Automatic annotation (TrEMBL):
The lineage of its organism: Bacteria, Pseudomonadati, Pseudomonadota, Alphaproteobacteria, Hyphomicrobiales. It is found in: Cell envelope. This is Transporter substrate-binding domain-containing protein. It comes from Kaistia terrae. Residues 25-254 form the Solute-binding protein family 3/N-terminal domain. Residues 1-23 form the signal peptide. Its main location: other. PANTHER family: ARGININE-BINDING EXTRACELLULAR PROTEIN ARTP (PTHR35936:SF17), MEMBRANE-BOUND LYTIC MUREIN TRANSGLYCOSYLASE F (PTHR35936).
């Protein structure tokens, strides 16, 4: 190699070392069947509260994020297998889940309710729901709670978050349990508000361990660096008011 070539190569390496590193893309999965938190609009675009929140977190943390739709039942296995880097889909933090995945700081504390046809006069108790058909999304806190608390009920489980509502409106289920905000803002509007209503008490994680500590972003336990960056981004949007603005956009909170 000539002296000139050596100088050229040395200069190229020096310039390369000064160039900013290209950020690796972070793949984030969501179950897009749960409006207003996550769904697909008429143009095929992912929209919703969690989509806006995750986008804001990624921008604040300077992460190159790609949010994709995924089937609910495969999300946590996909995360642990390395198929996804993170999950955002109103995931509640529970001891059972902490054993296999890591969680960001909690960003929401939801309440849970039953919804049923108006005038059904249901007694929300283990004996009162004996023989009643309760529709839930499989593998959710609602599934776990109903299974444990109402053993005499007939429980129908569905993979997607929208399917239980179809069963309820078609008369194939007596009740459905979900996040109160989801029922209120995605189901009890228009004609549905005239035919259906929230029934029974509000439930939180303080009432039953199945409902967890709150809602957070899930990350592979082996990726401590990503966890730290997501928490930093979440803290930033909480401090600068973006999180409150997203809350207000979807739920009218101040």
């Amino acid at each position: 190699m000539t002296k000139l070539s050596t100088l050229f190569l040395g200069g190229f390496i020096a310039l390369a070392s000064l160039s900013p590193a290209i950020a690796e893309q972070v793949t984030i999965a969501t179950d897009a069947t749960f409006p207003p938190f996550e769904s697909v609009d008429a143009d095929g675009k992912l929209v919703g509260y969690d989509i806006d929140l995750m986008s804001a977190v990624c921008k604040a943390a300077e992460l190159d994020c790609n949010i994709i739709a995924a089937a609910w039942e495969g999300m946590i296995p996909g995360l642990t297998a390395g198929k996804y880097d993170a999950l955002i889909s109103q995931l509640t933090v529970t001891d059972a889940r902490r054993k296999i995945i890591a969680f960001s700081d909690i960003y929401s504390h939801p309440t849970f309710r039953f919804v049923a046809k108006k005038g059904a006069d249901l007694d929300i108790s283990p004996d009162g729901l004996a023989g009643k058909i309760v529709a839930v999304q499989t593998g959710t806190p609602m599934d776990a709670f109903v299974t444990k608390t109402f053993p005499k009920a007939t429980i129908k489980r569905y993979d997607g978050g929208s399917a239980p509502y179809l069963e309820l409106t078609a008369g194939r289920a007596d009740l459905h349990m979900s996040y109160e905000a989801q029922i209120t803002h995605a189901f009890l509007n228009g004609d549905n508000a005239e035919k259906f209503e929230l029934v029974g008490p509000q439930y939180t994680g303080k009432d039953a361990p199945e409902f967890g500590e709150g809602v957070a972003i899930a990350i592979n336990r082996r990726n401590a660096d990503l966890l730290a960056k997501i928490n930093a981004g979440l803290a930033k949007i909480r401090e600068n008011g973006e999180l409150a603005a997203i809350d207000a956009k979807y739920f009218g909170k101040n």
